[in-house]
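Figure 2 data, in text form.
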Amino acid sequence: MEVSRRNFLKLGTSTAAGTFLLGHGMLTTQAMAAAELTSVIYFTSTYQGVLHGAKGFVNHLAESEKGAVAMDFFHSGQLVKADEQLPALRAGSIDLMFHATSYITRSFPVLGITGMPGVVGELYRHPERLKLGSPLFNLINEELAKENLYMLSAGGGILEPEYIWSTEDSQIRSLEDLRGKKVRIASFEATKAAELYQVAAVRLTSSETYLALQRGIVDAAVANIGTVAGRSLYEQISTCYQLPLTAYTVAPFMLRSRWDALDADVKDALQGAAQWYDNNMVAYCNNVVYPEKYWPTTIDAGVEVIQPTESDLTAFNESTHAVWDHWKGVVGKETGDRAIALALGQS
């Protein structure tokens, strides 16, 4: 029986699939231009807003004119796990991945602007600054192209910032309470900010965080309300210190070379889906799912929400300039200055 690329992906692992396709010369220029694509996301169905966006993207493709794209969609890590998505994309085993930007800023530092401490509060209040086609969006893609990556949409902004969620035995109710704590943090930028307060940062995936809190492996977690509700972390948490430490968005990515090789009608269909995603993903999460479902569930579970004082906010924002300088040293001062200015509405 002939084994198609799509069926092989369903049966094999991403690594095996990549080896098979490349080793047997099946990933030819002609195949690269085909409209049969495979996409993945590791988020589970408990992440209602994010899955709504990803599924909406795929459904929009299915309904696009002329049926230009046939896309197999695997969610909840069914095909590849979170840390396997980027290697699978690079190997050609998948065509498109939906990925949280916070998980891949070490590989693609320019994405750090979506979670930059001292910037995310302003970027969250002004999602238009990251909309598809905006100067900041275009700048990010200019930098990603150097690493052969293309972001089709940033989801129309960033998701509600990640706050500090602590257990009953290790409550964090102020900036000073952070000192010496073991805290789950995903993004590199937030880790650098936390280091200024002698925090022991522990990098865990969202799926590992519940047990880490339960067993005292960490005292607290830096997380978005979607993770707190989606992973039922509120069962292990007593306090939310609502300092906007960092943030992220979930974006669809393709290899730039893969994108460039597509036929015009396929690109048009994907761009239409990306526009739908840009208009709906972040807006649905921030304006519907989070305030109407996730926050009420979390508050009803007994989690106390504490607002940071003005002095804490000022002290934190001033301290984050050291993180900005470090990041600029990685992405380049000109790029870093421009990205921060665009995110803050200063350019």
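Caption note: Residues 122 and 344 are 6 Å apart (CA to CA).
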